[in-house]
Amino acid sequence: MTTTRNAVRGFLAHKGRMALSGIAVLLSVAFVCGTLVFTDTMNTTFDKLFATTSADVTVSPEDADAENASATGVPPVLPAGLVADIERAEGVASAEGGVFSTSVTVVDADKDSLSPTSGAPTIVGNWTDFDARTMEITDGAAPRGSGQVMVDADTADKHGLALGDAVSVIGVKGTHAAEISGIAAFTVTNPGAAVFYFDTPTAQKILVGEKDVFTDIHVTAADGRTDEQVKKNVTAALAGTAAADGGYKILTADEAGDQASADFAGVLDVMKYAMLGFALLAALVGVFLIFNTFSMLVTQRTREIGLMRAVGSSRKQVNQTVLAEALILGVVGSALGVGAGIGLAVLLMEAMGAMGMNLSTDDLTVAWTTPVAGVVLGVVVTLVAAYLPARRASKVSPMAALRDPGMPADARAGRIRLALGTVLTLAGAAALHATTRAEAAGDGSQWLGLGIVTTLVGFIVVGPVLASGVVRVLGLLVLRLFGPVGRMAERNALRNPRRTGATGAALMIGLALVACLSVVGSSMVASATDQLDKTVGTDFIIQSPSGQLITPQAVDAVRGAEGIDRVTEYKLLPDARITMPDGRVADKEWLNAADPSYARDLRTDTEAGDLADAYEPDSMSVFGDFADKYDLTVGSEVKVDFPGGGTGTLTVRAITSDEVTVDKGALYLSVDTAAKYIPAEKMPLDSMLFAGAEDGQEDAAYTALKAALDDYPQYQVMDRTDYKEALRDQMGQMLNIVYALLALAVIVAVLGVVNTLALSVIERTREIGLMRAIGLSRRQLRRMIRLESVVIALFGALLGLGLGMGWGAAAQQLLALEGLTVLEVPWPTILGVFAGSAVVGLLAALAPAHRAGRMNVLGAIATE
Q1: HEC per residue, 635-655
Q2: Any idea what the Cα angle at residue 408 is, between residues 402 and 409, rounded to 5°?
Q3: Angle formed by the axes of helices 315-354 and 369-394, to 10°?
Q4: Rounded to an integer, what distance in angstroms lies between the CA atom of residue 580 and that of residue 64?
Q5: Residue 451 near residue 827, CB atoms below 8 Å
Q6: CA-CA distance, 46 to 54, in Å (whole number)?
Q7: Which among 376, 387, 454 is positioned nearest to 422, based on CA atoms?
Q8: What global pTM score does this model have?
Q9: CA-CA distances (angstroms) from residue 621 to 192, 297, 615, 669?
Q10: pLDDT tens digits for 68-100?
C-alpha cells in the first residue's frame, strides 16, 4: 500500500509534467480504438444491409460471379419459366424474378454522371415486391412503361433530382432515356450505392436485351419452413430443368449474406490493418516521449529518491513506485483514449459521408474487445517506456543522491550503446545492400524488411552518440549565427545527448517513412513515364477512370472521330487454361487480346520472334519467364481453353521481354483469334482503346475524340501528357493519404519535443534565474529555448530523411526487378520537409519559452 500511495502522490504532484505523455497515450489508443470501432461499424452496416436485402432463398446462374460474366457487360440470366417451377416446390410461399446490372452508367440531363464518387456501385434493376420490403416510396410512384424510372432518395438528394427530371442509362445495349416517376428511401442504411428502378420489361430490354429472362429469382419461404428446407426443395425442383450454362447457384439468406460480407471483408481488412499499422507506429513514437518524461522526472527527483532510500525504501520499492506511476498514466491515458477513439470513429463516419459513403451512428458498434485492446496497448506501451527510467532510479545510491542534484552519466553504458548501435546499423546497411543484389523480388523483400528494421533500431540505439556530432555541425551552420544565445542553445542540446537522441528519434521515425515513400513514389512515376516514352507509340488512350468497360457504341464513336488514323481494341480474357506440348497446364491465365495495330501502339522488346506475328490467325506470344517455365520456343503449339468459349490450338510466334513495366507478363493474341473461339455474346468488352492520329492532325483529333465521346462521360480521352499527369495524380493521392496517417506519428513526436523542453525548463529553473540575474533578457531567453528546439527537430529530421532516402533507394532497386528502373529523389519534398521541421521546432518551443520568460528571477534562483 505504501508503494501505491507514493505512486499516486508522485503522479498527482507531477500531473502537469505528465500531461503531454498522457496525450501521446491517448492519441495512440484513440487511433486504435477509432479504427476498430469504425471498421466494426462498417461491418455491422453491411451485414444489416445484406441480411435485409437477401431473400430467404436466391437462385442465380452458376457463373454469376465469374470474371468473364462481368467482362461482357451483360449479366448471365435464367429463363423466366423457372419462376413457376420454383413456386411449385414444397414450402415456397412465393417466387419473383429480378434483373439487375452494375455494368452501367447513369447520367442526368446535363450528361453529368450520377454514379457515387465513393466507389460504391451504380445498380439498375426492376422494381419488385421484394424490393418494396427494403424500400419505401416517399414521393411519386413506381415506374410504369419504358419512359419512367425511380431513384433512391440518397442519390436524389445528392444530385438535386426531382420528379420529372430526365436521366439516361448507358450500357452495352445502348442508351435509354427516362423521366423520374418516383423517389424511394431505404429502410436500412444505404452505404452509398446509387439505385435506379425500371419496370420489369424495360429493365430486361436495357440490361440484357431479351425478354422472359431474369438474373436471379427471389424465393420467400412459407411460414414454418426454414430456409435450408426450402433450399433443399428448390434444388430438387430444378434438378430436371434445363440449366443455364450448366447449373444454378442456390443460396439461403445467411449464405448470401456471408458471401457478400466475405467479398467486402477483403477491402475492409486492408483499410483496417493499414490504419492499425499507423496507430502502432504512433505508439512506438510515444515510447520515446514517455521514456524522456520519466527519465527527466527521475533526474529531477534524485534528492527525493535518495531520501526514500535513506529512510529505508528498497530498490524494489523505488522501482515499483516509478512503474506504478507509469501504470496510472497508462490507465488514465488509455481510458480517455477509448472515449476519444469512439469520437474519432464518428468523425471518420462523417468524413466518409462527405465522400459519398453513408454510415449511420445507429449502427455504431463498440465490441468489448475494443476498449480491452486499447487499454492493454496504452498500459503496455507506458510500462515498457518507463521500465529503463524506473530501473535507473532503483540504482541511485542514497548518499550520491543526497550530494548531487543530478544523476551521473554512465560512461560504460555509453560505450556499449555506441558499439551495439554501430553493429546494428552496419548489419542493416548490409541487408539493404543485399536487397540491391537480389535476383528475385521475394528474396529481396525479405532483405529489405530486415534492413529497414535493423537500421532503424541501430539509429535509435546510436542516436545519443550521433547527437553530439550532428548537433555541433548544426550549431556551426545555424546556431552560431545568433551569437552567445545560439551557443548556449547548442550547449543545452548537448548537455544530455541521451535525451536529445531520444527526442530526435521520435521525429526521425515518422520522417524516415515520409522520405522512403516519397522516393519510392517518385521513382515509380518516373519509371512509368520513362517506360511510356520508350514503349508507347499511340497518340491517345481512352479508358474509364472508374474501371468501366468500353461499350460497342463508344467504340463506334471513337472510330468515327475525324482525324483518327487507327483504333486499337484491347480486351482482357480471364481464366484461360493453357495446355503445353508436354501436357503441363497453366490454369486461370489472363490473355490480352488486341488488334494487330497494337504492335505499333506498344513497342515491346522481344527475346525471340516478332510481336507483329503474334496477331496472325491462331497465333500468340508469351513472356520470357513463362516460356522458360514451360520450355516454350517460337513455333511451339499450345492448346488454349478460352473462357466461356471453345478450345483452339495456337502457335507461339514471339517471346516478349520481361524487362518492361507496361503489360509486364502479358500473353498476347489478336481479337480475331479470340472471336473465333468465343461466342459474340460471351466476348469481353474492351478495357481500353488506343487511337492514332493522322499525320499533323494530333490537336484536331484530340478535340474530335472528346466531342465524339460527349455522350459517354464515363470515358476519358488522354494523350501521353495527360496519361503521365494522371499517373502523378494517382500516386500523389495515395501518398497524401499515407502522409495524413503518418501525421499522427509526427504529432506525437512534436509533443515529445514540447515535453522535453517543458521539463528541461523546470529542470533548469535555478540556472535560468541565474542567467536572468546576470543580464540575459526575456527575449534572449525565449530565443535560446526556441533555438534549442529547432536544433533538436533538425537533428531528428536529418537522421530521418537520410535513413528514409536509403530505404527508398533500396526499395527502388527491388522494384527495378519489376521494370521500374529509374531512381528519382524528390528533392523539393525532402528539402520542404527539412525546412518544415525547423518550423515545427519553433512552434513546439512556444509554450516552454513563454513559461521560461515569465519566471520570477528571485524565485527561480531560490529553487533547489
Answers
A1: CCEEEEECCCCCEEEEEEEEE
A2: 165
A3: 150
A4: 29
A5: no
A6: 12
A7: 454
A8: 0.79
A9: 43, 70, 8, 7
A10: 667 888 888 899 889 988 988 889 888 999 999
